[in-house]
Amino acid sequence: MRFLFHKLLPPVLVAVLFLLLWEGIVVVFEVQPFLLPSPIRVAESAAEHWDRLLWATLRTGGSALAGFLIAAATGIILGSLLGLSRWLERGFYPPTLLLQMVPLIAIAPLFVIWFGFGASSTIAATVVVAIFPVIASTLGGIRSTDPQLLELFRFHRATRLQTWWKLQLPSASPSIITGLRVSAGLSVIGAITAEFVSGYTGESAPLGSLIIASVQNFQTALMFAAVLISSVIGFVLFGMVNVLGWIILHDWYGERTR
Amino acid sequence: MTDPGSHDAPASPALQLSEVGMVYPNGFTALSGLSFQLEEGGFLALTGPSGCGKTTVLQALAGLIRPTSGRITVGGDDPASANHVACCFQDPRLLPWRTVLENVCLPLQLAGVDRADGVQRSREALSRVGLADAASRLPRELSGGMRMRTAIARALVVRPRLLLLDEPFGALDEVNREQLDDELLRLWEEDRMTVVIVTHSLREAVYLAQRVLVMDSGPGALVADTEIAFGPRTDSTRTDHRFNDEVGRVQRIFRSERAS
After folding, report:
1. Does B95 touch chain A (CB under 8 A)?
2. CATH code for the domain of A143
3. How far is residue A148's CA from residue B92's CA, in Å, rounded to a whole number?
4. What's the average model confidence in pLDDT over B99-105?
């Protein structure tokens, strides 16, 4: 009960207040529904189009999750490889940084040329957006491994692979988890943005395409519903990383893990 | 390979340094013309003021650094390829995410020892340092003394013929330090491995070792090499006037060498 009261009540209270305020403003100022639909209208629209929204959620959620997982796995491996030598880092860090700097919306059409319309180009774009925080946090974590522990491993003549797997990767894991959190949020942004360009319309359109289509048809309430669902996908991915982080870190960081 | 238990193995020195010098890349001369050897099963203490190069000697014996001149052999081999050498550093150096047992097991895992065998040997090593009950705890749940015991167990688990210790108990309080000194002596009496301990405390050096080497800085070299003429250590040794006389004798050697 105390947990519910202290942890759950404040965010729920704020959300309810926010919805009431929103509903109130729309009703009192008689705002046009295509400009700003009231929360009740958004809910009605979501109920009406539940099948399209469900499909869209599954497609976008699937693309975001796939892109995130690929970015996480390759990011940890690439970050570790860059951590192996200063030489590799100097050579390959700038092009990696480019991944972060290039505007996704500008290269998304290219992925359509390469991978065609649909999920594969969405996933590719998601990986490009989500991979950099993982690479950077893995590299940073590996670089900050305790030199005295490295000396211990050197004394025991550990191989590079042993040192990586048994020392550097566990040392870097708090940092990697932080990178994964950032990357989880970016995955959804990446997937939706890519779908603006690469998605397709019709009954089984993903959320990005649905958002574009509903704006063009003045179905603002449907657009709001799609946007809210996109954020929920982001929260789910973020939650997954937190659970993973808790499992990995709670033993040795105890109370410090959050 | 000779059987470590046989007593008529040839008395080859466990370690030998001849004219060892160490100049760091920044030009600092840490060691110059250092020579000594130690017989198998000997207990040697290296002592001297800070910066005299005693830790450098230990790192060279551990194969972690290579001297810039002279030659070191450990059991006839190059230190970087010698086997059955264990090292305790100034701090315990435990992996915080591993339990005590898994930390002790680490050297065996790195050497590719079979898992069940490794766990068995780690448990034996832990019970030898009185930590059998702490096997599943994490380092952060242990006191400083218990962490150091874990590090000693991790050294014992490789069944060392040469045990190197670099001011291992320097960070502990006096009661803990004396207790661990006594345990170290007990372990040495049971196993009779060769021990080299670096300590800045002359008292600790005289209490533990059969032979004490005193070094001085500028550049690091031996100023004294003396056998400790004192019988088995007992509970009353530390307050025995003969022990204090012996400490005083080594102190006087050091001072006179320094003055000259």
Report:
1. yes
2. 1.10.3720.10
3. 10
4. 96
